[in-house]
Amino acid sequence: MGKRPQLKNIRRLVIKVGTRVLTGEDNLILRPRIDHLASQVGQLMERGITVVLVSSGAVGAGLGEMGLRSYPRLIPNRQALASIGQVQLMKIWEHAFANYGKLVGQVLVTAGDFQNRKSYVNLQNTFESLFRLGVVPVVNENDSVAVRELRYGDNDALSAQVAGIVDAPLLVVLTDTDGVYTANPRNDPEAKRISVVDYITPELTRATKGKGSEVSIGGMRTKILAAGLVTQAGKYCAIASGADCDLVSLLEGKDLGTLFLPRADGLKRRKHWIAFTSRSRGKLLVDEGARSALTRKGSSLLSSGIREIVGRFETGDVVEIACGEEQPAFAKGVTSYSAEDLERIKGLHSSRIEEVLGHGGPGEVVHKDNLVLINTEQ
Ligand code: GLU
């Protein structure tokens, strides 16, 4: 476990607030919580720190507004609730920030907005304009229009993307526990809060499996995955309690929540783009040996470890790397060979590439400099 650093030099941060922080038992929005958060953000802004809020709670607030207790099964019904709740959510944020003389700007996004280069740059410019105007951007997924393929589903993943797009060195995820524990503190009295995480081990990810609640989508697991993305991009991530958060003290280095340290091998811009924004065009299914070489040794992917190719793609496209078609990808990278060429060289030793294809090419199918691990739990 590493030492807790001071975060005093941080001038920009993204704060993600979960549904369970913002809504109570009856699904109604807890105004005092929002007021407290707005006061915290106000204090940070007074110190010249730029803040983006990623606020969940639209579906939850929609349930509360309609007097419903359970989460609807049908997607259009959930989308309708999100559209009702989003209005309530923004009204309350607007009101809370008005006490500090700040305006809020609603930014609703879907995963597609981050994958398309044009809309990515557009969105980036919108954020920068809002910052110049001194307005607090309040971001949520555009739940009432997002379709399954272009949906994050949980705002933990979304907030990691937002930290990337605004280039914030810190993401603070506020939730209903005061950090990550060695075991589930709800049923294990021995569980201890982890103060600093310098490396997210597969054991840590596994220990935090399980979902939060019906309405709030993510649990601790999606938060750790988000922390993994953020720290790989060379940024800090803190997971802390949203009930009584003290962000000023957190930045002063007080031992609050769990702080994930940036990976020393933080990705450069290119890797950042691969991890956060690029859209993959296909999938490479690899064997166990290749997976272990990539995840444990940080090696490049060679043709010999590839078993199957899914999709059509060209040289230079981004592809996902997984062990099976139904399994989640554990890495993403830029392929040096097209799907067509890979069909012919899969499983072969690199020394045979030229002979089989009739033309030369790099020894690696995905070079380690073009490869990013995206899921540490496997
Ligand atoms: N976007 C969803 C909402 O506002 C929440 C997703 C999440 O809980 O992570 O209701």
UniProtKB/TrEMBL annotation:
The gene is proB. Gene3D superfamilies: Acetylglutamate kinase-like (3.40.1160.10), PUA domain (2.30.130.10). PROSITE patterns: GLUTAMATE_5_KINASE, PUA. It catalyses: L-glutamate + ATP = L-glutamyl 5-phosphate + ADP. This is Glutamate 5-kinase. GO terms for cellular component: cytosol. It comes from the Bacteria. Belongs to the glutamate 5-kinase family. Its EC number is 2.7.2.11. Residues 282-366 form the PUA domain. SUPFAM superfamilies: Carbamate kinase-like, PUA domain-like. GO terms for biological process: L-proline biosynthetic process. The keyword Amino-acid biosynthesis applies. ATP binds at residues 16, 175-176. Keywords: Amino-acid biosynthesis, ATP-binding, Cytoplasm, Kinase, Nucleotide-binding, Proline biosynthesis, Transferase. GO terms for molecular function: ATP binding; glutamate 5-kinase activity; RNA binding. It is an enzyme of class 2 (transferase). It is found in: Cytoplasm. Catalyzes the transfer of a phosphate group to glutamate to form L-glutamate 5-phosphate. Substrate binds at residues 56, 143, 155. Pathway: Amino-acid biosynthesis; L-proline biosynthesis; L-glutamate 5-semialdehyde from L-glutamate: step 1/2. The keyword Endoplasmic reticulum does not apply. Pfam families: AA_kinase (PF00696), PUA (PF01472).
